[in-house]
Write a structure and sequence with these properties.
The complex is a heterodimer of chains A (116) and B (114).
Chain A: E1 5-7, E2 10-13, E3 19-24, E4 31-38, E5 42-50, E6 53-57, E7 64-68, E8 74-78, E9 87-94, E10 106-107, E11 111-115
Parallel strand pairs in A: 2-11
Antiparallel strand pairs in A: 1-3, 3-8, 4-5, 4-9, 5-6, 7-8, 9-10, 9-11
Chain B: E1 3-5, E2 10-14, E3 19-21, E4 24-26, E5 33-39, E6 46-52, E7 60-61, E8 64-69, E9 74-79, E10 88-95, E11 103-104, E12 108-113
Parallel strand pairs in B: 2-12
Antiparallel strand pairs in B: 1-4, 3-9, 5-6, 5-10, 7-8, 8-9, 10-11, 10-12
Classes of the chains: A mainly beta (116), B mainly beta (114).
Chain lengths: 116, 114
């Protein structure tokens, strides 16, 4: 079974630009969540989608948005990039139903975003 | 809001020895779930072990076991017979009954020395 796939692996953007990251979950997984990982803040939850609906959202500004398609693939968009948005963005998928210990997160390799 | 604390930013252990990583958390929930994830230098996060708060018995997965103290809100990870491949960042994580939002600790960087 293929794992969680994130594209691209690396991105370099300049301030003010926008960026779109993509995540393909494990086949059969309907939940996709996004995390921002930085050395200073650690792993911070961005949002979670299930069956094309955002079920939960972290404490990030509106510049961060996402969506999920009918095939469960998800995209995350960051508009008006700032230097502080430089981070590793991790996507994780799970079945999204049932007890969390039976539906743990499976992570992708991440997208390393550098904003200059 | 739930918080997860890992008080050891870095640790090292000799190969074949045992090491314990600490994790404490804060929540007002009665049932919840705790996890340890491992992030090797290749950076893909991997689930190590999981525990439901209602279950009194400590979870074990081969060389990995936890010491879950619900009253103390403590969830430490013990790695026995450490191997070089255990070198990684280890994250303690918490989620509620719904599992829609995981809260991660800051991580402990573990180095296994030959």
């Amino acid at each position: 079974k293929a794992g969680v796939t994130q594209t691209p692996r690396y991105l370099i953007k300049t301030r003010g630009q926008q960026v779109t990251l993509s995540c393909s979950p494990i086949s059969g997984h309907r939940s996709v969540s996004w995390y921002q990982q930085t050395p200073g803040q650690g792993l911070q939850f961005l949002f979670e989608y299930f069956s094309e609906t955002q079920r939960n959202k972290g404490n990030f500004p509106g510049r961060f948005s996402g969506r999920q398609f009918s095939n469960s693939r998800s995209e995350m968009n960051v508009s008006t990039l700032e230097l502080g948005d430089s981070a590793l963005y991790l996507c994780a998928s799970s079945t999204g139903t049932g007890a969390p210990d039976n539906s743990p997160l499976h992570f992708g390799n991440g997208t390393r975003l550098t904003v200059t | 809001a739930q918080t997860v604390t890992q008080s050891q930013p870095e640790m090292s252990v000799q190969e074949a020895e045992t090491v314990t990583l600490s994790c404490t958390y804060d929540t007002s929930e009665n049932n919840y779930y705790l996890f340890w994830y491992k992030q090797p230098p290749s950076r893909q996060m991997i689930l190590v072990i999981r525990q439901e708060a209602y279950k009194q018995q400590n979870a074990t997965e081969n060389r990995f076991s936890v010491n879950f103290q619900k009253a103390a809100k403590s969830f430490s990870l013990k790695i026995s017979d450490s191997q070089l491949g255990d070198t990684a960042m280890y994250f303690c994580a918490f989620t509620d009954n719904y599992g829609q939002n995981f809260v991660f600790g800051p991580g402990t960087r573990l180095s296994v020395l030959p």
